[in-house]
Amino acid sequence: MITQEFEFRAPDKLDEALAVVAEGGGDIKLLSGGMSLMPMMALGLVRPRLVLSLNRIDGRNYVREDRDALRIGAGTRHYEIIRDPMIARHCAVLAEAAAFIGDTQVRNRGTIGGSLAHADPAADYGPVLVAASARVIVRSKRGEREIAADKFFTNLMETALKPDEIVTEVVMPKLGAARGAYTRLHRVEGNFAIVNAAAVLSNANARIALGGVRSVPLALDVSAELSHGVNDDALEAVGRRVSAACIDAPADLNASADYRRQMAAVYAQRALAIAAGRKAGQQTPETGRKPVPPASAHKAAAGTVGGTLRTAIAVSVNGQQRRLEADNRMILADLLRDVLGLTGTHIGCGTGSCGACTVMLDGRTVKSCSVLAADVDGCAVETIESLASDIQHLHPIQESFVRNHGQQCGYCTPGMVMSALQLLRDNPNPDEAAIRHGISGNLCRCTGYQFIVNAISDAARELGAAKPLA
Question: pLDDT higher for 284 or 262?
């Protein structure tokens, strides 16, 4: 549980949210995905007076065609961007970047608007939006305004947003005949990039943007260097220019300044080569989007959680409707374990890193330590307890974990099983790379990943491609 108390509000209309931020001052934090905010609150790095959730506002997640651009709602979650057919057709480079964000659970919950407003200099969307000359739409009670992506980011984790403004939309130009590419350097899947690069090439110009080398994305027009085509000499010229522009690249525990500067040149060249078709792109094993199953309504059970500041919620848990008042500080994992007695959901890091607390929220896996209990009103939660009625009647995935020694010490197993369930719902026949990608948000403390991969592969074979997963 988060230690400091705070007020929680979750309006269902944007105008209501705008009224709150107009009156509230700087000690309000907006909650969209919460993938950065929740760990920061858990660690005491952020102590807001009020958390304003945007998750109940209708119509925040959409992709709409508008002449020569796509309009993307700020509440659109990363996994939706990865799988949207219009984005794939008109600006696939945005989906390529989204596929590298965090892990499956983070992509299921995080939003494009939240990522932009957080403005981490190594985040994935920034270079793409800057290279593509995208625009960010923001609103306040005073009205609406449009900010060019290269003007939106102003300093380290700072933006052009005023305290009373909320990001409502991203306008992404259709690339048309232009070609885009995104690539990044990272130590481990799920980490922020050490360096990332986006390139957009057209007949008229060539533009690259890099992240991780400054406090804001670095944009360069390299049309002159590529005036005679994307050849080795041209790429070397681009590399020299990037190195010169990154003279003040930062150093940290992941990379020295010199290494980061050199890698910026390499990845800028790589992005341009990919966009020009000279080199294969960096891929992740994402698959087609699946529908979210509806929640079931059953007899309600009432309860109360202590605390001075509380929020009334109604949530379906494993098909049973629950009504209670949750302490605003309580995370979903604590609600499940301490209030509802569903102790199969384990808590490891408490900061969204290990995945032991993975559950399903409205049909998609999330890390329940990174979701406020107060924010699940009207949602459907599935935990490991939903898969088997007793030890004699395990789910096929659970049986496969036992058969293939995938459970080991057992602490991470419930989260692993829920991630495997999500993976096999989306992709009934994954190869080993897809399995490892699908469980990248779950850490095994016993380090027995091969047993876990074998178990999921075996479960996929047993279930068969045509058999739906419950």
Answer: 262
